[in-house]
Amino acid sequence: MSALTLAGVSGGYRGAAAVSAIDLTVGRGEVVALVGLNGTGKTTLLRLAFGMVRPTAGRVSVLGTPVAGLPAAIWGRVGYLVDTPLAYPELTVRENLRMALSLHGRSAARLDQCLGRWRLRESAGRRLRHLSLGNRQRVGLAAALAHDPDLVVLDEPGNALDPAGVIILRDELRRRADAGAGVLVSSHHLDEVARVADRVLVMNAGRLVGALDPHGAELERAFFAMVRADDEERVR
Ligand SMILES: Nc1ncnc2c1ncn2[C@@H]1O[C@H](COP(=O)(O)OP(=O)(O)OP(=O)(O)O)[C@@H](O)[C@H]1O
Questions:
Q1: Which residues are in the ABC transporter domain (predicted)?
Q2: Do 54 and 164 lie in a common domain?
Q3: How far apart are CA 84 and CA 86, in angstroms?
Q4: CB of 204 closer than 6 A to ligand 1?
């Protein structure tokens, strides 16, 4: 059973399809990265996966169950950060993480472990709104992953993180995948995704146009060649 499957999914905004005919499977135990230029539809694809934008065509299943009417028990096995983080500015870091755990039916016993993993112990008592952007992003990611989800979907998770945060993120994604979760992340940073992804999918003009070998040489060159070839194909 896959962690996430999109079959023939299209959708967008105000009747215009921002994303078309997406076939995508994220297996258990793998990290899949979605890369593409600004405005190519990465965020929209992730929104479509969870019904935040309603698909005009196609089917989505999450952990083997159709996403429409997904039972709470399955939602509880999903961790995502797309658009707004599951975090409140007026609460402290500790309170935010305790709430994220409790919303997913987990005890606060792992709160300390979570603060430690994300190196947030020193800021545990501070209100979120007083933290730097990068530390707020750490809290958002920690909240999304605190309950050890079986499906992880993150939009540009490396945004605003410092190099230490990027390393923690990478380790946490790998840890989830090694524990059998499926992980889907969008990113602009090819070198960053190459370090963590098992597969790199390229998006252009609202469609998936190919895959890159994350361990291949000249990833950047291969990426631009793929995008250019697709652009040329489309104007023909
Ligand atoms: N809320 C919205 N309402 C209308 N159009 C939108 C909305 N969000 C995105 N779009 C449009 O949909 C298209 C795809 O945008 P999307 O944000 O999915 O791209 P992206 O690949 O995530 O871009 P970026 O890398 O810049 O974050 C763009 O043309 C964008 O202008």
A1: 4-230
A2: yes
A3: 7
A4: no
Domain extent for 112: 79-148
> Structural domain tally of the chain?
2
Q: Are residues 73 and 156 in the same domain?
A: yes
- The pLDDT tens digits for 57-111 are 999 999 999 998 899 999 999 999 998 877 889 999 999 999 999 988 888 888 9
CA distances from 79 to 15, 75, 126, 215 (A): 29, 8, 24, 27
How many angstroms separate the CA atoms of 133 and 202, rounded?
Answer: 28
Strand partners, 203: 208
- The residue with tokens 């995948």 is 177
Q: Whose CA is nearest to atom 25 of ligand 1?
A: 38
| Predicted-assembly ipTM surpassing the 0.90 threshold | yes
**Ligand 1 pocket: which of 40, 159, 187 to mutate (most atoms <8 Å of CB)?**
40
Residues 130 and 61 grouped into a single domain: no
Query: Quick one: 177 and 63 in the same domain?
Result: yes
Strands 199-204 and 207-212: antiparallel
Question: Given a cut of 90, is residue 207 above it in pLDDT?
Answer: yes
Q: Phi, psi (5° rounding) for residue 76?
A: -65, -15
The per-type count for the chain, helices as H runs and strands as E runs, is 8, 10
Between the alpha carbon of residue 148 and those of residues 72, 125, 141, the distances in Å are 16, 23, 12
pLDDT digits (tens, 9 = 90+) for 106-149: 888 889 999 999 999 999 999 999 999 999 999 999 999 999 99
Q: Does residue 84 sit in the same domain as residue 140?
A: yes
The pLDDT assigned to 151 comes to 98
Residue 113: CB atoms within 10 A of its CB come to 10
